Structure formats: C-alpha cells, structure tokens
Amino acid sequence: MSFPSNVNEADANVGQERRIFLVEDDLSIARLITTVLPEYGFRCESFRTGGELFRRLRQTTPDLCIIDLGLPDMDGMEIVRQLRADYRCGVMILTGRIHVGDKVMGLEIGADDYVVKPFEPRELVARLRSILRRCEPTQASNGKARVARFSGWRFDTDSYTLTTPDGREKSISASEAQMLQRFLERPNRALPREQLLGQNDLSPFDRSIDVRISRLRRKLEDDSQHPTLIKTVYGAGYLFVSSVGWE
User: Fold this and answer.
1) Which of 41, 45, 82, 104 is 20 to 30 Å from 68 at the Cα level?
2) DSSP string, the chain
C-alpha cells in the first residue's frame, strides 16, 4: 500500500491494518473521513446510527470508534458509555458541540479524545494515531507481560487488567491505563502534564489531563477529593506516591 508523501513509514504503520468504526449521520462528513483514512492505511467502516454500530460490534471489535454526538436514534454520550463498559477499543468523539461542559463530560465518561467540527483531516489522522499508540499494550523486552503491584493493587500492563486489593477487577480505559503505567514506571517523581499525556505540544489551557487524572483518582482512591496516591504538584504536574514492584 502506498501512503501520501508526507507520511513517514513509522506513522504509516500506526494506521496499517487498524480498523476504524465511524458513526456519523452527516453523509458529507462520513464520505470525507471514509475517503481520507484509507489513504493513511486505515480500514474504515461507516454507520449512520448507534443501532447499526452495535449490530456490527456483535461480529467484530474495531481498534477505535469515532462517535458523533448528534445521532438520530441514540445519544452519542450513551454510546461512548457502552463502548467503554463493554468493549476494549479507543474512542474519539467528533462533534459540533463546542461547549466546555460537553467536552468535560465526554472525557469523564471515557472518551480518549474530543474533536470539534469543522476539523482538518490531517489533524484528525494525527489524533487517531496518538490514541492508537496509547492503546498499544506495553510488553517487557522478553515478550512477557509486566505486572505491577502497588499499595495492594495489581495492574497487568499487557491486558490492562486493574485488580483491587480485595481481588475485584476494575474497568479502566486505554488512556487511563497508559497514564497509570507512566506513573507506575516513575513513582515518587513529579511528572509534567505533557509526559503523562504523551504529547509535547500540549496547550497550557488544555484541561483534558486534569479530567483524566480525576477519573483515575476516583478508581484508585477512597476519597478522590483528598488523594493519597496521585498528588498534585502545582507548577510541576502530578506525583504518584507509592512503592511499586514488578513481576
């Protein structure tokens, strides 16, 4: 497969053979996305309703879903909730809703990114690649999964399985798992927001990191308003306070 001249081989491999499900009832936007993504190595299937998406999901799970919020049969936020609860795939919200409250809600319920229309196709592709890179399980050099233990918790970095001190499995999104792994690999050190998100060009006004930290705290902390594991270091970032063992 050939790729556009401005796409390097490493970036092309991020898209190659990755399956994207798009839920978009605006035919012009759906046509644009389903035309552009194959040029960058993605396989893309488009659906006009949430019902069509979930019927297809009974057959196969994609690597990532792009969800419009204004659909004729379902609220897009509810689709995101169901995807995060029942499927392991990346989730991007693509919408015309520009209100900060909508963005915060979308990230709170588990979306990996929130993109507002109109959008630049190349930026959309870059954001898709960023999510997919974050979704890739990290393995040790010997090819075996690494398991971290901290404060009674257990986290499998290969399967993204988070187990509570009393043995229950707790649901965690791909973006949350990647952020937790960055903390576990560098405990007791203040990590800047850019490092936690894996982005070098993060806007100082981008609060998505804070939303994701809040979600992660609610899963790990008894009192997320007074956290003991993930501390805010004002002016520096966040600090994960725990000893971490690997097996």
Assistant:
1) 41
2) ----TT--HHHHHHHTT-EEEEE---HHHHHHHHHHHHHTT-EEEEESSHHHHHHHHTT---SEEEE-SB-SSSBHHHHHHHHHHH--SEEEEEES---HHHHHHHHHTT-SEEEESS--HHHHHHHHHHHHHHHSPP--TTSPPPEEEETTEEEETTTTEEE-TTS-EE---HHHHHHHHHHHHSTTSEE-HHHHHT-SS--TT--HHHHHHHHHHHHH-S-TTS-SSEEEETTTEEEE-S--EE-
Encode pLDDT of 18-47 as tens digits. Answer: 999 999 999 999 999 999 999 999 999 999
Q: Residue 156 in contact with residue 145, Cβ under 8 Å? A: yes
Amino acid (1-letter code) at residue 221: E
Largest interatomic CA distance in the chain: 53
pTM of the model: 0.64
pLDDT in tens, 205-231: 556 778 888 889 999 988 878 899 999
- Cβ neighbors of 132 (< 8 A, separation 6 or more) are 14, 15, 18, 63, 64, 90
Spatial CA neighbour of 151 closest among 237, 233, 239, 241 = 241
> Residue written as tokens 């689709």?
79
Cβ-based neighbours of 56, under 8 Å, separated by 6 or more: 21, 45, 47
User: 60 — alpha (psi -120 to 50), left (phi > 0) or beta?
Assistant: beta
